[in-house]
Write a structure and sequence with these properties.
single chain, two-stranded antiparallel sheet, elongated
Length: 145
Amino acid sequence: MSRLDPRDPLVLDTRGVARRAGEMQTVSRTAPAPEGMGLDVIGVPGGTDLELDLRIESVMEGLLVSGTVRTRAAGECVRCLEPVLLDIELPVQELYAYPDASTADDEDVQRLDEDHLDLTVVLRDAVVLALPLQPVCRDDCPGLC
């Protein structure tokens, strides 16, 4: 029995493509962002829309998930402390290994949980790495007096 909740919008059911080499499935959905997608000064607030356009392809070792995620980050300018909103669109790509695949022992490889995969970690990693470490409201912001 799967440990993932199939009702979670970031959990995908892969029954149509899993273990069927060459099969492909597309997924387009909007899901709420989980908590903790960000840095101290900027991040994607929990519940913010994550627009996902993904392709799931069956390969020998598992399922390759690739596509784009679009969302909006909010934070504050590190110079003047004014609010900063940042639209983000970035590519994502991750291999979800079958439990019996040779790569399944690698700690860095995501794994399928029966016929389900969870996008939470992959999306969090992609978004956090795309965020600026020192967001500014505009390039020429003079900062506080």
